[in-house]
Amino acid sequence: MTQLPDLPALGLETYLIRTFGCQMNKHDSERIAGMLESLGMLPTSEVEQADVMVFMTCCVREAADERLYGQVASYKNVPSPHGRRIIAVGGCIGQRDGMGLTERLGNIDVVFGTHNIAHLPSLLAQAARDEVPAVEVLDEADGFSTELPGIREHAWHAWVPITYGCDNFCTYCIVPYVRGREKSRPFEDIRSELITLAEQGVHEVTLLGQNVNSYGRDLYGKPRFADVLRMAGETPIERIRFATSHPKDLLDETIQAMAEVPSVMPQLHLPVQSGSDVILKRMNRNYTAARYLDRVRRLREYVPDIALSTDIIVGFPGETEQDFQDTLALCREARYHQAFTFIYSKRGGTPAARMPQNATHEEIQSRLDRLVELVQESAWQLNQQEKGSVVEILVEGASRKDPTMLAGRTPKNQVVHAKVPEGCAPESLAGTFRKVAVDTARTWYLSGSLVEG
Ligand code: SAH
Ligand code: SF4
Ligand code: F3S
Fold it and tell me: Which site among 15, 33, 243, 370 is 20 to 30 Å from 90 CA-CA?
């Protein structure tokens, strides 16, 4: 790592991080918080109080892009506590646009990318001293961000990257261009991090990667994700989750490990993107709808009660009504607990950006509406099965909907709201396991009351 600057001495005493996009950015934001605090800076949640604002950005869809421009512009005239505020933009837009960002947005002081978050402190110092933008974007990673000190959002949960980058080049997707080639962390590094996290009181980890199923291919010549799950199962961490799984690489040995390791939760996010073989081919996904459904059957054979979630894109260039009907049919068969549904968004530089769009905006919107309705129906129906049961939840804190209730998640990752006993603050139970008797099941959550003891 480069030499560490004395940021408070440069008038940079407080920081605020805004994070967009996926869990990888959340993880990196926790590392940035850790680094800045180890250098003597303090967190603040008030823009007016922040000497440094860091934006961890996402460009996976156009809407995410635009959000950044609006936000950065809106902070231009907010006064700062020590006269000058440093605005730093990192993450995927930083990586993609580099210097171009400072030209597009006048008030940016630092641009960094996805491969060099460890350099942020020195870039901040440089910008504070020189009063000209400090821009650094690297083509390849300078170490794994996981090796930096971190401050976790929750004491009981940790994000643990096991791979960085992506080699799949789905034709719509910008991620491989902004996160670089797939790189696995050494197996022993993951093990020692998990053991340390368990000692620190972490109860749940989410193993991260754009395609965790191919973990190890670059290091060991073959995927070793099933080994990672078994190893994680030997640590005292009670709940193991992971994201994301590419269906083409979901091996039987992984499904078997999911079934055999008790701490691997009965839940899987398995993005399908489309149910049409023609579209899947054009997306370069490397599986057919039949192969995907075969994986779903195998999962249910080994983990009968598994909760599946997915990502789906509608309006991919060339998608016809029949292709979309194939997607609906697949969803009916797969029975999702949850689906993240997106309208295709053209990303410059990707192969799909050159494919002609045939459907109108209205047609695409109608597809999205019909898809959302179908998914809501299956989510609602699946949740009804929990009514009358007792579920174990890991408490996250107060419910956002009703702060007098607590919120937590079941092994299947369903959100649960529960009444707490009189005089008990929901936050005081965060990070503990509780049992809830479920009396109500809605589309996106369950609710009930705590079971004593
Ligand atoms: N690596 C993960 C997903 C990363 S991006 C995976 O392969 O599953 C998260 C989701 O955003 C994708 O699954 C996809 O559904 C969606 N997405 C990616 N690029 C998109 C685009 N150009 N337009 C619309 N949705 C997109
Ligand atoms: Fe994007 Fe495909 Fe890689 Fe996922 S697997 S990050 S969708 S290119
Ligand atoms: Fe977005 Fe980058 Fe993640 S583009 S989805 S933040 S990898």
Answer: 243
pTM above 0.85, yes or no: yes
Ligand 2 nearest atom to the CA of residue 173, by list position: 1
- In this structure, which ligand is nearest to the CA of 178? 3
Q: How far is CA 280 from the centre of its chain?
A: 23
Closest CA to 118 of 31, 181, 23, 50: 31
Alpha carbon of 68 to ligand 1 centroid (Å): 19
Residue to mutate (ligand 2; options 210, 285, 344; most atoms within 8 A of CB): 210
- Residue 190 predicted with pLDDT over 80: yes
pLDDT band at 113 (very low <50, low <70, confident <90, very high): very high
Burial 155-167, CB ≥16 within 10 A → b, else e: ebbbbbbbbbbbe
Atom of ligand 3 nearest to the CA of 59: 4
DSSP strand pairing (307-314 vs 433-441): unpaired
Distance (Å, rounded) from C-alpha 298 to C-alpha 262? 18
Length of the chain: 453
Tell me how far the alpha carbon of residue 280 lies from the centroid of ligand 1, in angstroms. 13
Q: Helix, strand or coil for residue 14?
A: strand
Alpha carbon distance 44, 34 (integer Å): 14
Cα-Cα-Cα-Cα dihedral sign, residues 371, 376, 378, 379: positive
Q: How far apart are CA 327 and CA 289, in angstroms?
A: 9
* 73 in Cβ contact with 108 (< 8 Å): no
CA 125 to centroid of ligand 2, rounded, Å: 35
Residue having the nearest C-alpha atom to atom 5 of ligand 1 = 60
Mean pLDDT of 268-293: 98
Nearest ligand atom owner, CA of 243: 1
Q: Which of 175, 177, 340 to mutate to test the pocket of ligand 3 (most atoms within 8 A of CB)?
A: 175
Residue 132: alpha-carbon gap to chain centroid: 33
Amino acid at position 377, single letter: E
Tokens describing residue 396: 């996250």
